[in-house]
Write a structure and sequence with these properties.
- Keywords: Cytoplasm, DNA-binding, Nucleus, RNA-binding.
- This is RDM1 protein.
- InterPro entries: DSRM_RDM1, Rad52_Rad59_Rad22_sf, RDM1, RDM1_RRM.
- One of its GO terms (molecular function) is RNA binding.
- One of its GO terms (biological process) is DNA recombination.
- With 220 residues, this protein is of the alpha+beta class.
- The relative contact order is 0.12.
- Strand 4 (108-115) and strand 5 (118-135) form a beta hairpin.
- It folds into two domains: 1-73, Alpha-Beta Plaits (2-Layer Sandwich); 80-217, no CATH class.
- The strands form three sheets. Strands 3, 4, 5 and 6 form a four-stranded antiparallel beta sheet that branches. The protein has a two-stranded antiparallel ribbon with strand order 1-2. It has a two-stranded antiparallel sheet with strand order 7-8.
- The longest helix has 24 residues, at 158-181.
- It has five helices and eight strands; from the N terminus they run αββααββββαββα.
- The chain is 29% helix and 33% strand.
Length: 220
């Protein structure tokens, strides 16, 4: 996988690289699935690498996979780490910034259940986060709002509760950042220039609130 990554990453940012053994009927050897963020990068890699000996004695057969499943599956958003990786690659580390508008604890008891004469209480840790992402060179701002939650088996243990709270905070901030990035379109031109456009189809009601209104809404 390291050799594959080195060979194909020179054509563009890679989303993932996976190498697998061939099926028994196909004989010894391996096949790999290399995913690019950009279809243009994938096409260039295919044209340059097909039939070449990149890091092995026999030439590689490289093709672009265009087959799609008949049953359309829900497209999952990129996680926050992938979003940041993509932004850093095309815009640079100084080409964007993010800040937390609000991160509030909305934890409480989920409820009480009586079973075998005992009262069972399960404590839940909940946080709501609103994040703003700014692209200063393009005059674009976007927001993301998310809810994070986790159950604490022993709500009476302070250490366990603090650990769960930190984990949920990190999770919630990441989800909010990912939500903000889903409203952005990166347009990569052939000359290497990148444009940032706001995707209005992903707008949410909270995008039209002021910061004070947003904080008040979360508190309620």
């Amino acid at each position: 996988q390291h050799s594959l990554f080195s060979a194909f990453s020179r054509f563009g940012l890679l989303y993932s690289v996976r190498a697998h053994r061939n099926a028994a009927v196909a004989g010894p050897g391996y096949y790999a699935v290399v995913k690019f963020y950009s279809a243009g990068d994938a096409s260039r890699a295919q044209r340059a690498c097909n039939g070449q000996r990149l890091f092995q004695k026999s030439p590689l057969k490289v093709c672009v996979c265009t087959k799609q499943k008949r049953v359309q599956q829900q497209v999952l958003p990129l996680n926050s780490n992938k979003c940041q990786e993509l932004a850093n690659n095309y815009l640079g580390f100084n080409g964007w910034s993010s800040r937390i508008i609000t991160l509030q604890n909305v934890s409480g008891f989920d409820g009480e259940n009586e079973e075998l004469g005992e009262t069972l209480q399960k404590r839940s840790v909940k946080y709501v986060c609103a994040v703003e992402v700014t692209f200063p060179n393009h005059g674009v701002r976007t927001r993301g709002v998310a809810l994070g939650e986790a159950d604490v088996e022993n709500g009476e243990d302070p250490l366990e509760f603090v650990t769960a709270s930190r984990r949920v905070q990190k999770l919630t901030v990441g989800k909010a950042l990912s939500s903000a990035f889903q409203k952005i379109l990166l347009v990569v031109l052939e000359n290497g220039k990148v444009a940032v456009e706001y995707n209005s189809t992903q707008e949410e009601p909270t995008d039209f609130l002021t910061e004070e209104e947003l904080k008040g809404l979360v508190q309620v």
